[in-house]
Amino acid sequence: MMHGYLYLSIILFCLGIVGVVARRNVFTVFMSIELMLNAANLVFVTFARVHENIDGHVLAMMVMAVAAAEAALALAVVILLHKHKSKLDTNVFSLLKG
Amino acid sequence: MEQCANYLGLIPLFPLLGAVFIGLLHVFTCKRTALPEKVYGILACVGPVLAFVLALKVFVALKGLAPEARFLSYKAFTWFSVGELHIDMGFLADPLSCLMLLFVTFIGSLIHIYSIGYMGGDKNYGKFFAYMNLFLGSMLVLVLGNGPVVMFVGWEGVGLCSYLLISFYSEDRSNVLAGNKAFIVNRVGDLGFVLGMSFLFWGIGAHGFDYLSLKANVHHLEPAVALTVCLLLFVGATGKSAQIPLYVWLPDAMAGPTPVSALIHAATMVTAGVYMVARFSFLYAGVELAGNIVAWIGILTALLAAIFGMFQEDIKKVLAYSTVSQLGYMFAGVGVAAYSAGIFHVFTHAFFKALLFLGAGSVIYALHHEQNIWKMGGLKKKMPKTYITMVIGALALAGCPPFSGFFSKDEILYSALATGHFGIWAIGVLVAGMTAYYTFRMIFVVFHGEPRDHHAYEHATDAPSVMTVPLIILAIGALCAGLLNLPGIFGGDQVVSHWLAPSLTEHHPHGGVFLEILAIAASVVAFVIGIKIAYTKFGHGAQEPFFSGFADFAYHKFYVDELYDRIIVQPYKAIGSSIWKVIEPNVTDAPVKGVSRLYMVLGTAFKVFQVGYVRVYALYMVLGLGIMSLLLSQSLN
To answer: Looking at B499, B514, B544, which one is the last position of a domain?
Structure first.
C-alpha cells in the first residue's frame, strides 16, 4: 500500500521538475515548485503513517507554513518582474548570461 | 686611554639639525610667502659656526693631553649588532680628525657666509642652505666616525649632497646630467669601498671594527688580504677624490653654484679620499705595493689634469682640473707613506682652493654669470679686492715661496725624492711648472690686458662685503697656513707633522740637506719657468687661441668622456635595452602573461554553462542533486 503513495509522490515531483525546467511562464514555474513541495509532503505523511509516529505530520505542517510564506514573497517578486519588463516569460530575465 | 667627550656628537648634529630645520621651513613657506633671505642666511650659518667653536674646544682638549693619549671618543648609541659585527654610532677625535674638523668647519662657515651674498635673489634660497648644511654635517660624520662603517655613512651623505647641489639649477637638463654623472661615478667607487670594508671585517673585524681596534689587530691580517683591502678602499677614494679612472665627474660638477664648487673642492667631499687613506695609514704602511699604486695613480692624475687645465676656457673648469691635479699630489704624498705631508697639503689646499673658487665666484657674479675667460680681461682695476686675493690664492696654488702651497707641495715632493721615488718626483716637478702656467694663464687673461667684453666690463665691481670678507680671511690663510708646518731647513719644527704623528703610522724620511735643497730648488725653478711662459703668452693681453693638434686633443680632454661613453655607458645601455626588449617580455613576463591567458581560456570554455535562464540553473541543481543522491545511495549499500 505504501508503495502506491510513494510512486504518486515521485510522479508529482517529476512533474514539478519538468514544469520548472520546461515551462517559461513564471506562474507555471511557481505552481510547479508548489507541486514539488506537496510531493515531498506526501512522502512525509506516508512515512509518518508507516512508522506510526507524529514527526512526519509535524514536518508536513511546517512545509505548508513555509510554502505559504514563500508564496507571498514569490508573488511579490512576480509583480516586480512584471513591472520591470511587462512580461512573465523567464527567458526575458537572463542578466546572468556569460 | 680614551677619554669621553659628549660634545663630539654635537659637532655633526648642529649642521644636520640646521639642515632639517631650514629644509622644513623652506618646504612650508616656499609655496606661499617666502621668508626673508636674512632668516635663512643667519640660520644656515649658526650650525657651521657652532661646529667650528666645538672643534676649537676639541682642539684645546686634545692639546691638554699627552701626545700619545690624544684620543677623545663618544659613543652615541649601539647602531646594530649582528653576530660578530658590533657597530656603535660612535665618534673619535684624534689629532688627524681634529685637524680635518678645524679646517672643514672653518672654511665651511666662511663659504656659508659668502653664499648669503652669492645666492641672493635665488628662489630656492632656503633649499640651497638646507643642502649646504646637510653637506657639511655629512662631512663631519665622515671625519669624526670612529670606524669605517660610520665613515661610510658620511661618505654616502656627501655623495648624496653633491648630487643634490650639482644639479641645483635643475631647470637646465645638462646640470641634472652632471649631477647624475657625479652620483653614478661615485657609486662605482663606493662599491670598492664597501668591498674593501667587507674584506677588512672578514680579516680582522671580529675583534672590534673601529679604528683603534683595527689598528691594534692589523698584524693579524694576511698580506694578500691587506693588499686587497688597500686597493679596494683606494677604488673608493678614486671615486670620491676624483682620481684616474673616476675623475671625470669633478669637472662636470662645475654645473652647481660656485659656493658649492668651493665646498666640494676645498672642505668636503674630495678630501675624503685622502683622509681615508691617511686614516688607514696603519694598513697602507704595511703594504708597500698598494702605496706605490696609490702614489703612481695620484701623480699620473696630477699630470693628466694639469694637461687638461692648460687648455680650458671656463674659469671654473681651470680650477676644477687644478683640484684634480692637487688631489693627485696628495695621493702621491700618502702613497709614498708621507701621510702628514698629504694631509698638510689637504689643509693648505682647502684655503687657497676655497679662496680661488670664491674669487672666481665673485668674478662670475660681477659679470652676470659669464664663465668664459676669453670674455673677461682687464678686471684688475674694477675688482681690486678680488684681484689681490685671487693672486694670493694663485701664488699659493702655483707653489710660490713662502705661500702655503709651496711648503705643502714641497714636502710631498721631498718625501717622494727621499723615499727613492724619482719618477714620481720628476713628474711632480713638471706638474708644478704646469700648475704655475695654467693658474697664471687664468689670472692674466681674466684680470690683465684689455677688456674683451666692454659691456660686461663697465658694470663689473667688487662684490659686497659679505662676500669679500671671507675672501680676505681665506687669503690670509692661504698666505700663512704653510708656516704652520715649516720644515727644519727654514728653521721651523714641523708643528703639523708632529701634531698628526699619534694618528698616523709613518716614518719621516731622512734624505739629507742636499736632497731637501734639490727638491726646493727644482720646485722653485719649475714655478718660475711656468709663470714666465704664462706671462710672455698672456701677460699683455691675448686673443682666444685656435687649438690644433695636441692642444685640440687636450682641449677635448683626450676624448676620455667619449671613450667612457663608448666602452662603458653605451654597452651598459645596450645590455639594459636588450634586457628590456628581449629578456623581460620572453623570460619574466611570459609566465605571468601565460597564467592570465590560461584563466582566460578556461573562462571562455566554462562560459557556455552560464546561459542566464533560471530554469537551466534549476536543471543543473536537479542533475547535481540526482548525482549526489545516486552516489550517496551506493555508499550506503
So the answer is: B544
